[in-house]
Amino acid sequence: MTFVSVQVTFLYCCSTSLSSAEISPCAKWSPHGKTVAGNGLVGDTLTQLATPRGIFIMKRMNTLYIADSGNYRVQMLPLSQSSNLATTVVFDVREPSKIYVDDDENGPTIYISVFIGNRVEKWTKEASKGIQLGDECRSCFGIAVDKEKNVYMSELDREDVLKWSPQTNLTKVVAGQTDQRGTTDKYLSSPHGLYFDRNSDTLYIADSGNNRIQKWKKDALSGSQVAGSNTSTPSADTGSLDEPEGVWVDELTKIVYVADTMNNRIIRWLPNTSVGDIIAGGEGSGNATNQFNSPSDLAFDSEGNLYVCDTWNHRVQMFSIIDNKPCSSTSTGKRQIYSNWIMITIILSILRCIIEGLF
Q: Where do the record's region annotations for Disordered lie (predicted)?
């Protein structure tokens, strides 16, 4: 059975991700990117960036947010405009690493992992100062937020991921072992980017030092590997990763997209597979339109276009989706399973909407 691309915008009440164009497991993007933020030269003007580390796209507003690490600020850029002139919405933050933007009733709320400041800050709309959330987050790098506004933050130097609760104002370890690194499933090594799947209450971690992506279910005592090889040795083959810093998950298909930083590529990893597909980059380190220099994060807009935070080229690149057809009957067997999977997921989402509406 072939993959069926399904529009499920009527399920917006359960998941914001479902209101966007669905991305086929066989989708293809242009091999050449277009610079949408920065100009490739380090600088601090409104058209320049300095070692950006994180990006986030608010799909409803079609707006790109950038953690402009070297300039100690967060930039906002409407993707509908033709120029790359950005607006500074957060300032004087010592090396922001990753960001999460929540679409609250009173406007966008920006959550920032502050690397040098060892903390997470929350900036409400038009705020002039951020509010620290929770305790110290040492060498804070990754950040994610769930439906209950719990904030997840990765401590790069302490080998763990913390969770801060707005109900209790307490912070606790939810992944990894504090100050202990290892290669088995209960350990992390230099955790970087995070992604929280709100549909399944699952946390995904770019376990950079172990060259893998780990999936941690709610209240789990250990994770499971969803991308990377069975060893912790880095490699450039498509079954391996090399110090990945960013992860993005399709909450419908559970396909994992990775900013494979030291391999200078973006790679797609289908569930229960041992190899990935390179969808952008992979042409060595450089500043050509088909190259990256240490990509650290990625995101997709509502049309399925790919955006990459190209850190040491001081820019954000956009790769247009050029083929979003369903997988054909000649596609590999691992992709043919998605028709049934997606239909089941849709049914479960409908039931979830009904239950949440009742209670």
A: 223-243
